[in-house]
Amino acid sequence: MKQHPLEGKTAIIKFDSGLQFRIDFLAEKQLRWTSIRKEDEGATDVETIHIEEYPGGIFSVDWVEESGLCVSYTIDTNNAFVKSFMTFSDENYRGGRRPFVHEGTFQFIETSEPV
Question: Which fold, 10-109?
Answer without folding.
Answer: Lipocalin (2.40.128)
